[in-house]
Amino acid sequence: MRTQRQVVDYSLKKRAVLRELLAGRVGTYDVCDASPYLKNAARFHGEPTEERCPICRSENLIHVHYIYGDELKQSAGQARTLAELPVLAMTLREFQVFVVEVCLGCDWNHLVEQFLLGRDGLAEGGSEQGAVGGVTATGAGPARERRREAQR
Ligand SMILES: [Zn+2]
């Protein structure tokens, strides 16, 4: 998404949990504990993926996108479909998205990533924000700026 920034990737953490599980240091009970709310969110707002569940290997994972931010008011903390996010990103200045993967077969769930969306991230095309700090003038460009943020 165009305004996506400050991406935090949790795949290392996920691998660590799976290692612990393989080693028998945690049980499937501890990691397959999706709440009824999370599973409902997955059913009604989830984004199906091609990725198999790492635990039961019988269902594909579903990604649920939770949104947080002051501007959202009573919608904060709700799940949204992936298709709704770009619309919100053009309407609001900034909000946080948490992506959670869920398996409806065995209740496995884990945080995938988090990032910011919203118009504050639109620095392209010589808008007022694009000129801040002379980023465009130095030739670094907003695209590179975004990549740097993604690596943080
Ligand atoms: Zn599963």
From TrEMBL:
<dbReference type="InterPro" id="IPR035169">
    <property type="entry name" value="DUF5318"/>
</dbReference>
<feature type="region of interest" description="Disordered">
    <location>
        <begin position="126"/>
        <end position="152"/>
    </location>
</feature>
<feature type="compositionally biased region" description="Basic and acidic residues">
    <location>
        <begin position="143"/>
        <end position="152"/>
    </location>
</feature>
<dbReference type="Pfam" id="PF17249">
    <property type="entry name" value="DUF5318"/>
</dbReference>
<protein>
    <recommendedName>
        <fullName>DUF5318 domain-containing protein</fullName>
    </recommendedName>
</protein>
